[in-house]
Amino acid sequence: MFRKVFGILALAAASAWTAAATANEIRIDNPAVDGVPVDWCEAYGKGCGWTGAHAFCHDRGYERALRFSVFNPGRTYVVGSDRYCTGPGCTAFHSVTCRMTPGQAAAAVSRPAAPPPPTS
Q: What's the N-to-C CA distance of the chain in angstroms?
C-alpha cells in the first residue's frame, strides 16, 4: 500500500502538467500509478465520474474537479480500493482539470517561467 500511496504522490512529478485556461486551474494529463492509468471511480465500482474526479483533485490538495475526459484502456488502477480493474468496462482519466485553492493559484502565478532550453 505504501508503494501505491508513494506512487500517487509522485504523480505530480511523473504526470504531464499543463497550464489551463485560467490561473486558478491545473490540468493533469494521463494520470497513472506505476504506469497504469488511474480509474475514474473513487472506489471499485463506486463513486465513478464526477465523484471520482472530485476525489482525484481533493487527494492532490486541490479544491475540486472542473472537467475531465476518459478512455477505456482495458486496465486501470482504482486508487481508493488499491486494486486493478481489468476488462473492456474499465474507464480511466485521460485528463482532469482541478480548481486550485486561492493560495495555490497565487503561488502558481508568482512562479517565474522556466527559461527556454539552450540551443546548440
A: 45
Q: By the 8 A CB rule, do 72 and 109 touch?
A: no
pTM of the entire structure? 0.69
Over the stretch 44-76, which tens digit does the pLDDT of each residue have? 999 999 999 999 999 999 999 999 999 999 999
What is the rounded distance in angstroms from the CA atom of residue 97 to the CA atom of residue 3? 25
Contact status, residue 49 vs residue 87, Cβ threshold 8 Å: no
Cα 21 from Cα 16, distance rounded (Å): 16
Closest CA to 108 of 26, 53, 31, 29: 26
Q: Which residues contact 109 (CB under 8 A, 6 or more apart)?
A: 23
